[in-house]
Amino acid sequence: MEFSYMNILVPIILFAIIYFFMIRPMNKQAKEMRELQKNIQKGDVIMTNSGLKGTVVGFDNDFVELSVNQEDTRLMFNRGAIREKITN
């Protein structure tokens, strides 16, 4: 049997393509999401993963307290549930 460098080169090239076009962007997005969740402050308007929009009114360890309406209904969410910060 003749040894061919193509047998080794093709899987390496495929892995590099998958890494640079899929894995690396997902890692970057996950890092940005962690930074967003870590840097939330009182008064920020946020959207949760479930689509709930509210204003941050407090913190308790890994939880964020949201005011969700004018009657001051408050809910506690894990910081990991924060999807985005809403800016007007």
UniProtKB/TrEMBL annotation:
Subcellular location as annotated: Cell membrane
Transmembrane parts of this sequence: 6-23
Family assignment from sequence similarity: Belongs to the YajC family.
Signal peptide region: none
Keywords: Cell membrane, Membrane, Protein transport, Translocation, Transmembrane, Transmembrane helix, Transport
An individual GO BP term: protein transport
Name used for this protein in its record: Protein translocase subunit yajC
InterPro entries: Preprotein_translocase_YajC (IPR003849)
GO cellular component entries: plasma membrane
Organism of provenance: Abyssicoccus albus
PANTHER family listed in its UniProt record: SEC TRANSLOCON ACCESSORY COMPLEX SUBUNIT YAJC
